[in-house]
């Protein structure tokens, strides 16, 4: 099996490449955190991004800053679902499961710094997007009146946590079962 030769590291062009370096660091962190979790070596992130550790720390002074930047993009994807006219709770949960299947770092980050304002901001953004979807689902008759926004947020946390803590080879099955339980609990009761 022939593997292509590794790409040579990109030359760091200093401040003129700051935005490009930042994007490269976030992309690399997404891969490194996916493979190694929240505690993965930051030197690996810098190496994969093709920048020096000094550049990494200029953009992200600590591990949490880098993780927040990665997960801001994830939440941006979830917000796009909530803002779309056809964004449903099923689509949202599918996207969250897809994110959890490839990375445990979000759960680890929240557990490492639950009271950090940056983490709290991410949680508030999730609550806002969930609120939009809950309202839409109620109006469409797909969600029971007994379901609160806090219930959906809790179910997201439970699903993501269960998926993240399950061995990789069993994650898809656990995600499917967790989604089925949530669907059954949230369905509109028939009179």
Could you walk me through the main structural features you see in this protein, from its secondary elements to its overall organization?
The model has no long low-confidence stretch (mean pLDDT 87). This protein has 2 domains: 15-59, Arc Repressor Mutant, subunit A; 63-186. It has 191 residues and is mainly alpha-helical. It has helices at residues 18-36, 42-49, 53-59, 63-83, 89-102, 105-112, 117-139, 149-164, 171-186. The chain is built from 9 helices and no strands. It is elongated and about 60 Å long. Helix 4 (63-83) packs antiparallel against helix 5 (89-102). InterPro entries: Homeodomain-like_sf, HTH-type_TetR-like_transc_reg, HTH_TetR, Tet_transcr_reg_TetR-rel_C_sf. Residues 41-60 bind DNA. This is HTH tetR-type domain-containing protein.
Q: Helices, strands, pairings?
A:
Layout: H1 18-36, H2 42-49, H3 53-59, H4 63-83, H5 89-102, H6 105-112, H7 117-139, H8 149-164, H9 171-186
How many beta strands in the DSSP annotation?
0
In terms of DSSP E residues, the strand content is under 5%
Question: Averaged pLDDT, please?
Answer: 87
Rg calculated over all Cα atoms: 19 Å
Spell the H/E element sequence. HHHHHHHHH
> Total helix count?
9
Instruction: Kindly state the percentage of residues in helix.
Output: 55-70%
Give the overall shape, derived from the CA principal axes: elongated
Q: Tell me the count of domains.
A: 2
The largest pleated sheet is described as: none
Calculate the terminal CA-CA distance, rounded to whole Å. Answer: 62 Å
Low-confidence stretches: none
**Class per helix and strand makeup:** mainly alpha
Domain HTH tetR-type: 19-78
Pfam families: TetR_N
InterPro entries: Homeodomain-like_sf, HTH-type_TetR-like_transc_reg, HTH_TetR, Tet_transcr_reg_TetR-rel_C_sf
Keywords: DNA-binding, Transcription, Transcription regulation
